[in-house]
Amino acid sequence: MKRKLLRQMLNEWRANLWLAIELLLVSVVMWFLADKLWVMNAAYNEPRGHDISHCYKLAVSQLAETSPEFKKYKDRHEQVADFETLIERLEARPEVECVSYSLNAIPYNGSNSGIMLNLDSISTGSVQQRMVSPGFIRVFRIHGADGESPEELARVFENMTEFDFLAASNLLDRSKLKIDLKSLYGSTFACGNEDSLKLVRAYQPIRNQDYQSSGWTWSAIMIPLTGSNKRWANEVVVRLRENMDTEDFKENIMKDALGPLRVGNYYIRSVQSLESIRHNFQIEHVQQIINTILVVVFLLINIFLGVLGTFWFRTSQRTSEIALRMSVGATRRDIFNRIIAEGELILLIVTPLAIVADWLMTHYEFNGYYKAFFEAPRFVGTVAITWAVLALMIAVGSFIPARRAMKISPAEALKTD
Amino acid sequence: MQNYFKQALASLRSQPMASWTTIAGTTLAIFLIMVTVMMEDIRIAPYAPESGRDRWLVHRFTSIKNNNWGNDQSSNAGFNTKVAKAVFMAMETPEAVTTLSIAPSEALVSMSNGKSFGAQLLDVDHGFWKVMDFTFISGTPFGEAEFESAQPVAVISESVARKLFGSTDVTGRRIEIDHNPYRVIGVVRDVSTLAHDAYADVWVPYTTTNTAKNKFNEYLGSLKAIILPHSREEIPKVREEYDRLWAKLGDEAKEDGWEFIPRDRPYDQETAVNTMWANVDPDMASVRKSQYIIWAVLLLVPAVNLSSMTHSRLSRRREEIGVRRAFGATRGEILTDLFVENLIITLFSGLLGLLLSVMFAFFGTSMIFAEASVTGEVTHLTAGMLLNWHVFGLALIFCLVLNLLSATLPAWQASRTNVVNAIAGKK
Known about the structure:
The structure holds two protein chains of two kinds.
Chain A (H helix, E strand, L loop, with lengths): L1 H10 L1 H32 L10 E8 L13 H17 L3 E8 L10 E6 L2 E11 L1 H6 L10 H9 L5 E5 L19 E4 L3 E9 L16 E5 L10 E6 L8 H8 L9 E8 H8 L1 H35 L1 H9 L4 H32 L12 H31 L3 H7 L1
Parallel strand pairs in A: 4-8, 5-7
Antiparallel strand pairs in A: 1-9, 1-10, 2-4, 2-9, 3-4, 5-8, 6-7
Helix pairs in contact in A: 2-8, 2-10, 2-11, 8-11, 9-12, 10-11
Chain B lengths: L1 H13 L1 H29 L12 E3 L2 E5 L8 E5 L1 H8 L7 E6 L3 E6 L5 E9 L3 H4 L4 E4 L4 H5 L4 E5 H8 L8 E4 L2 E9 L13 E4 L14 E2 L1 E6 L6 H20 L3 E4 L7 H5 L10 H32 L2 H9 L4 H33 L1 H4 L14 H4 L2 H27 L3 H6 L3
Parallel strand pairs in B: 6-11, 8-10
Antiparallel strand pairs in B: 1-13, 2-3, 2-14, 3-12, 4-13, 5-6, 5-9, 7-10, 8-11, 9-10
Helix pairs in contact in B: 1-2, 1-11, 2-9, 2-11, 2-14, 3-7, 9-14, 11-14
């Protein structure tokens, strides 16, 4: 039976070649897309280093001089005092668990403001510089690299000056030096020509976005935003108590924005949940996933149409042959199975070729990076998924012609011939 | 010509299944490829109020370094008013130039009666109204005098006007923006969030807000510029002036150790929307390459499919072709006939695919255009924004290529039919 099937397929090699080429092409493209989705999914599930649930960003601004309400500050201290009052009033709200303020530092913000740190022969390369308040560590629940809880790390941070910093534990990963960061705690790094910063502790890296593996993430450092520098803060984030994160929080804030939360020149423009900031920031990647899925569906429909058309044509050409086989004892099931098997067999034949192509694409690093360009489980997994989906599509596509063939009435078919 | 249509129709009828798969395959291919085209086109094609996109020169970010910094370090952001005056407002060649805030920001719009809500505010200069093509329902834009003297005047969108006053005829009325009193000077039609550089709910002179005071250093701030040359032919001349003015400012900056990094700016709209990061040079070659790869895949896979369909449709017509050959039709004639016949089917399906893609664009707007919009939500999408000659032209080209790929080989094979065998019904 197998042999006959093969011979028949060989006899119709021309039509089968088309199908084989199509399957090969689609298999390779599908594998590439499966691999891409695999990488995105794996990166998405990596630890993010922060927790943004129940967090809201308040856009805080200062009045323009033109405003009739504008207050001319005597000095920086007066200005900072107003800012601190605003923060205190936010902290005093019963629904608020903690408050942070920072300068272009919150997760999912596009700022790449960088700094380079040097210690003797060690250079960190460019790393992100985040100016934050101790509350930042509490609000986003950032953990220390040596097991400190957010609260413990925040306390360490409270005692630091603007000449100290915390480093993400992957600070030296780019420099490829095999140095334990812990051994450098207390060391003073040079940055720029004259300035220097002292490393105090390390924290677990915070990823910029969810669809990029930590291997790609820039390292970063956190420097306290203290003293008169506080007036540069452009983000205030509040974390709400879990049981008090209700719908009307935003409304209440906006109502009070014209009252108690108007301090000096500071006023609140808008409230936005970190979830929504995250959504907007990553829209490009969500779009990419949608596009990839669109293309996958497109390819599958193409396979379906291709298999359907080819086998429909084939069964109508072979009507008399099928009728003859039935009349000499082939069951309807046999006929059905044979047509399905023909498509699947072509897939089996092209699969080794497709795997070679997939392998070459991996080898030349065509596909996305996740930890490494090649990992056995990832390669085997994506190849298996691709194969299974294609096999399913072939079965679906040849189902209709196969059923038609099965229903041929031998007597009539042979009579008309 | 009529014959071709008859032939195409007859050929489709004789084998319904092969015909349906052919039409479905072609429609699907053109559909998806046109969706990808529209996703890119919506960011580049000109439509009001960004009607000049096809000749715009965009300067979004400015890059600068200083002698005192490390070798690798550069600062990349918008520019400040000093640069705006020295370079962009000093330009004389182009039709118009605007300097404006890099992106709209959320502002608190309120009225003395306690009505208040957040709205997207864009700080712009007077040139903005010349570069952009807004439709004013009432009032006028603000001019140079109002801009220079920092008059608190605002242009608001139709929907903001309705929200605040319940009417659009509100020129001269007072509103508060971020606790500052403003006078409404004009009301414009709402703008789609896809008009990336023009979109906002409220537009005010940046001399009246904090934007103008934003200074990250001597030269950087939060402004960008869009230059509108009179025509595409004028672009080299405008670039020359642009380079000259930057060079002049560069000489001045050198005294304090500053150096501008040009990164091939300004960009045409296509380069601008594909150069996301401020600190990276544009790389259109790689953008194009990935676009071509996607198109190739989207065309090749269905082409193989369709080729096989066409092949089976034609193999049923061997007798007919044999007879025509016996009566003196040349191979070339047969080939042309089959090709044109197939093209009719392709074009019909292509049109269907294009229609489908437009429908999909409307029903799946938030799915496919979210990335291109300012706020992540797409508003005011019109068919005029989706359909233009560029889109039609590309659709036609894709149909031709698809037809070429899928019909040539089967038609060529069919035209080589051995006359005697074909008429005799032998293989």
